[in-house]
Amino acid sequence: MIMAKHLRQILGEMLLTAPLDMHIPQLLPSPQELRGKILLKAKKIGGLETCLDETLTDEVSDEDEMTNEDMDSPCTEDQAAQTTNKKSKLSRELSDLVVYCKSVHFQSFEHARSQAKCYEMSSFSESKAKKLAKEAGTEFVQYNTRQLCRTYPSGLRTDSSNYNPQDMWNVGCQIVALNFQTAGLEMDLNDGLFRQNGCSGYVLKPDFMRDGSSQFSPERPEDRPGYKPLRLSIQVISAQQLPKVNQKEGSIVDPLVRVEIYGVPQDQAKEETSHINNNGFNPVWNETLNFIIYTPELALVRFVVEDYDKASRNDFIGQFTLPFTCIQPGYRHIHLLSRDGTAIPPSSVFVNISISDLL
């Protein structure tokens, strides 16, 4: 009750507390219709049907219960019933704030297809989501055209590490929760995906992942209508003013550039240039890296610059990640970001990008 009160007071009119048209939805509203609204995800007593009933129904029911208890029940049973009834009322305060995101336990895709309401959503641990994606990718994609779902990191990740969110995006999961306090590849991919909308709002899934009859599976991308793989060629020309990894006087980096592709399993690939000895100011490579992108709509491209070390692991210098669909052909400067995602001007990589049909 206290939390419900705070939510109402703090969020005010932004908190969605009832269906938009006051009718039981058959389909979820569009993001545009929900623009500017905050939705609460939690367990709910009953369904939206219960929520839309007049409060008078509850009042009459409570009155009848009290009358029956007074007439037929011993004092101890009466007290227990009142306590249970009170707890129910307290929880209902919060329950009534849940509209389109009722949390339910996932049983199976078949059960969800025949029984689930559009406003019910389930949460999947990373291991369960990956297992379902591999074993029933098409069903998972179809499930996510009808309902929202959330995935979350394993509870065994005591170091707050992350799983690869791309695995979840490949089957259309809408809410892919990560440990934002931990920088690294996974957060680079997350930042890269949402960079296309200015890191504000949502990113619309490809049309073949919004179609309820979709036969798309990340394991077999060639089965979908409109399948059109592309060839990506990146000529890594040079880099400019790379930062030092070791701040000792006289320290100079030996840079190399690696391009990594993340997407459906067939698209996972990486290629790298040779390293340049002792030149972080204006190293020149003029090397071309080639890739085939089987599902361009889901692919992310990550540019990574490292300081080569023969005896140990290379040191990270900078990176930049963006969706393949946002890449523009031609000569481009890739402005590098640090490990935590902040800019490190004027460091950049100069490339020439070519995209062509494969078939």
From TrEMBL:
Name the major location.
cytoplasm
Give the catalytic activity: a 1,2-diacyl-sn-glycero-3-phospho-(1D-myo-inositol-4,5-bisphosphate) + H2O = 1D-myo-inositol 1,4,5-trisphosphate + a 1,2-diacyl-sn-glycerol + H(+)
Please name the gene that encodes this protein. PLCD4_2
For this protein, what is the EC number?
3.1.4.11
Q: Where in the cell is it found?
A: Cytoplasm; Endoplasmic reticulum; Membrane; Nucleus
Q: Which PROSITE patterns has this protein been placed in?
A: C2 (PS50004), PIPLC_X_DOMAIN (PS50007), PIPLC_Y_DOMAIN (PS50008)
Which part of the chain is the C2 domain?
Answer: 210-338
Q: Where is this region: Disordered?
A: 57-87
Tell me the InterPro entries matching this sequence.
C2_dom, C2_domain_sf, PI-PLC_fam, PLC-like_Pdiesterase_TIM-brl, PLipase_C_PInositol-sp_X_dom, PLipase_C_Pinositol-sp_Y
What keywords appear on the UniProt entry?
Answer: Cytoplasm, Endoplasmic reticulum, Hydrolase, Lipid degradation, Lipid metabolism, Membrane, Metal-binding, Nucleus, Transducer
Which named protein is this? Answer: Phosphoinositide phospholipase C
The protein's matches in Gene3D superfamilies, at most eight in alphabetical order, are given as: C2 domain (2.60.40.150), Phosphatidylinositol (PI) phosphodiesterase (3.20.20.190)
Question: Start and end of every PI-PLC Y-box domain?
Answer: 94-210
**In which residue ranges is the amino acid composition biased (Acidic residues)?**
57-72
Please name the SMART domains in this protein's record.
C2, PLCYc
- Regions that span the bilayer: none
